[in-house]
Amino acid sequence: MGTKGCAAMTVGDIVERARVSRRTFYEHFRDKEDVVLAAGRLGQRFIAGRIAAELAGIPIHDWRARLRVSLQTYFETLAAEPRLVRSAEAAATAIGGRALELRAQSLAWSVAQMRALNAIARAGDPSIPELDDTELMLLVGGIGEVVRDAAREDRIERLPEQAPAVIRLAEAILSGRMRPEQEAET
């Protein structure tokens, strides 16, 4: 998507940059939106794979270490590819619909990961509350907004600097420290 941007880019631009024929392009994709979505899915799998590889040596019960490594790896992976992150954010906005579905799938995957960490935390400390999907979505959505903000302000490379604050907040949420006490019914 480069400097031209997704909205302005044509199939001709894509085949020229990829050094393939239009015929080859249309054998694999319906339109440029399909290319953007395929790239997005590939990026999601790459990030998930990097996180899984980094978590391989961490004991399953150590939810704090798993959270810390997951978020640090996520931010470091994005920081290593700032042009791709900016392009992906611009493309999601430009093409809407199906790209927003892809973002929703990513959100659901991330919520599931946070749910698992909350379950591990609760197994080690029964006083930790079970978080509901709304609470987990707020956490994951906030992390996503940190990334989108960095993309808008052209500072993707500096995302790892924000990891400690994000990790502290995520840990507080997952451990129930940020959850207001339920008011007693009268």
Description of the structure:
The protein has 186 residues and is mostly helical. It has one domain: Tetracycline Repressor, domain 2. It has 8 helices and no strands.
Q: What would you call the shape?
A: elongated
CATH architecture: Orthogonal Bundle
Count of domain modules: 1
CATH topology category name: Tetracycline Repressor, domain 2
Q: Given the structure, what is the number of helices? A: 8
What is the string of helix and strand elements?
HHHHHHHH
Taking the alpha carbons of the first and last residues, their distance comes to 59 Å
Determine the structural class based on helices, strands and strand pairing.
mainly alpha
Largest sheet composition = none
Name of the CATH class: Mainly Alpha
Count of β-strands: 0
Helix coverage percent of residues? over 70%
Radius of gyration: 19 Å
Query: Approximately what portion of the residues adopt beta-strand conformation?
Result: under 5%
